[in-house]
C-alpha cells in the first residue's frame, strides 16, 4: 500500500511521527502539512517531515488520496468543515483522536451523514512532549492502533488505513465506538486525570517548593503525563465526559475506602488491596516497551572534499571499535553507487525490477532499496531509522550538512574555503590543526587528538 499524496492536519508529535514512519517505510510519496503555527510548519518542512505547508485545510486536502486529522478534539469539527468542499470523492479520511464518539458526531454534523470513506482511528502511543520536534519514526512500532469502523464504512478504506498503520509497525485492532471510549476512559483518560489532579493539588499547598524538591522517582514516573498538552486533555475530558465521569466516580469510592482503611490502621485490609493490585498488574501488563527511540548519540562530520574527513573517520571508527564501541556509519553519497556487478544474479534481478534486494552471506548481509523519489536526496531521519539501534552504541554520519542534527566540522585552511560553523549553530565542535578563523568558535580538537574527540562524541546527546 502506497499513499501518493498524504495531507496531515496538525503536524505535531502524532502527525509528524506518522509522516516520518511512512517515509521510513517507503509507503508515501508527497506529504502536505497543515496547521496554525507557521514556525512549527516551517520546522516540519526543514526537518523533511513534510514537503509542502499551508494554513488552509482546504488547500492541504486538495488532490490528497488520504487525509490524517491530528488536531485537538475541540478543533475536529472546524477542520472537517474547512476541508469538506475540497476533498476528492475517493479520498480517505482518518484521525488520531482519543475519543471516537465525538469525531463521529462532528463528521455527521459537517457532512450530514458519516462519509463511507471515514475510518475513525486511535493510535495508542505518545509521549508527554508535543510539536514536530518531538516526533520520531518509531513512535508506532509495536504499538496498538484501534480502528472503530461503522457499518457504513467502506471496506476498501478500512483496508487501506489498516495497511497504513501496519507499514508504521503498529498492531491494528478493531473495536466498537462505545467500547473504545469506555476502555480509554479507564486506561488512559483516568490516569491523566489523577496525574493532573495530584500535581495541581500539591502545587497549591503552601509548602509546595519543599514537596517538589524532595520528589523521588516514583512521583516523577507517576506524574510524567501531567506535562501533556492541556488543550488536548481539556478537549478529551469534554468529549468523553460521560464515560470519564463514571470512572472518576467509581475511583472516588475506591479512594474513600482506602482512606478509611488507613484511618482505622487496618493493616490486613491494606495488604489485601496492595497484593491484589500488584498481582493484577503483573498478570495483565507486559514489561514496558519504550515509546521513544534508543537514545543513540548521532554525530555528523561535515567538510569539503579534500579536508581529510574520511581519513579521520576511518581512524576514529577503528579507535572506537578497539574500545568495544559498536559504531554505525551513514554516508550521504552524491554519486550513483552499486553494491553489485553486472552479470551477478542479484544485479540482474534488481535491474529487472526488484524493489528491494537483500544479499546475505555468512559474513554480512546488505539490503538495497530503490529510491522511489528519483532526484530527491535521502532524508536523514528515515535513514537513521533503518539502523538496528539495539545493536549500536553510536552512529557517525558523513555528510547531510544541511540536515538539522549535531555535526563536527573538519576544517583545513589550505583548501581556501570559509568555515561552516559561523553560519551553522548545530556544529558543536571543530577538528583542525589550523587556528579557528572566526571568533567565537566551538570546542576545537586537533586531528591527532582521537582520545579527546572520542570522549566528546560518546558524551554527546542526540
UniProtKB/TrEMBL annotation:
GO terms for molecular function: GTP binding; NAD+ binding; prephenate dehydrogenase (NAD+) activity; prephenate dehydrogenase (NADP+) activity. It catalyses: prephenate + NAD(+) = 3-(4-hydroxyphenyl)pyruvate + CO2 + NADH. It comes from the Bacteria. Keywords: Amino-acid biosynthesis, Aromatic amino acid biosynthesis, NAD, Oxidoreductase, Tyrosine biosynthesis. Residues 4-292 form the Prephenate/arogenate dehydrogenase domain. Its EC number is 1.3.1.12. The keyword Amino-acid biosynthesis applies. One of its GO terms (biological process) is Mo-molybdopterin cofactor biosynthetic process. It is an enzyme of class 1 (oxidoreductase). Pathway: Amino-acid biosynthesis; L-tyrosine biosynthesis; (4-hydroxyphenyl)pyruvate from prephenate (NAD(+) route): step 1/1. CDD domains: MobB. Pfam families: MobB, PDH_C, PDH_N. PROSITE patterns: PDH_ADH (PS51176). The keyword RNA-binding does not apply. InterPro entries: 6-PGluconate_DH-like_C_sf, MobB_dom, NAD(P)-bd_dom_sf, P-loop_NTPase, PDH_C, PDH_N, Preph/Arog_dehydrog, Prephen_DH. Belongs to the prephenate/arogenate dehydrogenase family. This is prephenate dehydrogenase. It comes from Allochromatium warmingii.
Amino acid at each position: 500500500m502506497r499513499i501518493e499524496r498524504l495531507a496531515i492536519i496538525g503536524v505535531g508529535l502524532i502527525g509528524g511521527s506518522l509522516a516520518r514512519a511512512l517515509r521510513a517505510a517507503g509507503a508515501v510519496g508527497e506529504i502536505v502539512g497543515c496547521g496554525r503555527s507557521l514556525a512549527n510548519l516551517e520546522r516540519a518542512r526543514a526537518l523533511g517531515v513534510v514537503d509542502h505547508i499551508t494554513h488552509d485545510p482546504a488547500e492541504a486536502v486538495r488532490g490528497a488520496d488520504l487525509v490524517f486529522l491530528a488536531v485537538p478534539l475541540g478543533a475536529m469539527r472546524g477542520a472537517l468543515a474547512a476541508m469538506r468542499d475540497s476533498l476528492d470523492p475517493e479520498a480517505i479520511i482518518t484521525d488520531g483522536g482519543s475519543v471516537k464518539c465525538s469525531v463521529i458526531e462532528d463528521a455527521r454534523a459537517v457532512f450530514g451523514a458519516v462519509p463511507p470513506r471515514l475510518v475513525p482511528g486511535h493510535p495508542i502511543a505518545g509521549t508527554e512532549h508535543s510539536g514536530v520536534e518531538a516526533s520520531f519514526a518509531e513512535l508506532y512500532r509495536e504499538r496498538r492502533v484501534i480502528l472503530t469502523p461503522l457499518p457504513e464504512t467502506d471496506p476498501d478504506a478500512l483496508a487501506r488505513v489498516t495497511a497504513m498503520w501496519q507499514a508504521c509497525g503498529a498492531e491494528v485492532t478493531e473495536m466498537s465506538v462505545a467500547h473504545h471510549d469506555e476502555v480509554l476512559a479507564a486506561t488512559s483518560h483516568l490516569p491523566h486525570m489523577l496525574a493532573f489532579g495530584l500535581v495541581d493539588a500539591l502545587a497549591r499547598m503552601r509548602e509546595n517548593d519543599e514537596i517538589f524538591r524532595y520528589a523521588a522517582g516514583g512521583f516523577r514516573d507517576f506524574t510524567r503525563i501531567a506535562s501533556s498538552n492541556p488543550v488536548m486533555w481539556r478537549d478529551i475530558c469534554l468529549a468523553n465526559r460521560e464515560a470519564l465521569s463514571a470512572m472518576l466516580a467509581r475511583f472516588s469510592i475506591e479512594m474513600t475506602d482506602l482512606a478509611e482503611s488507613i484511618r482505622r490502621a487496618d493493616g490486613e485490609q491494606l495488604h489485601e488491596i496492595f497484593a491484589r493490585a500488584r498481582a493484577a498488574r503483573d498478570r495483565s501488563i507486559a514489561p514496558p516497551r519504550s515509546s521513544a527511540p534508543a537514545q543513540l548519540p548521532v554525530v555528523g562530520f561535515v567538510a569539503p572534499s579534500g579536508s581529510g574527513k574520511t581519513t579521520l573517520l576511518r581512524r576514529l571508527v577503528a579507535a572506537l571499535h578497539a574500545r568495544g564501541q559498536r559504531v554505525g556509519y551513514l554516508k550521504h553519497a552524491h554519486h550513483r553507487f552499486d553494491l553489485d556487478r553486472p552479470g551477478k544474479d542479484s544485479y540482474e534481478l534488481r535491474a529487472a525490477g526488484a524493489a528491494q534486494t537483500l544479499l546475505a552471506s555468512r559474513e554480512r548481509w546488505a539490503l538495497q532499496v530503490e529510491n522511489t523519489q528519483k532526484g530527491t536526496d535521502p532524508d536523514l531521519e528515515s535513514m537513521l531509522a533503518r539502523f538496528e539501534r539495539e545493536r549500536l552504541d553510536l552512529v557517525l554520519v558523513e555528510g547531510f550538512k544541511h540536515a538539522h542534527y549535531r555535526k563536527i566540522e573538519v576544517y583545513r585552511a589550505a583548501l581556501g574555503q570559509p568555515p561552516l560553523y559561523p553560519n551553522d549553530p548545530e556544529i558543536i565542535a571543530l577538528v583542525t590543526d589550523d587556528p579557528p578563523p572566526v571568533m567565537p568558535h566551538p570546542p576545537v580538537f586537533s586531528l591527532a587528538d582521537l582520545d579527546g574527540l572520542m570522549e566528546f562524541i560518546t558524551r554527546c546527546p542526540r
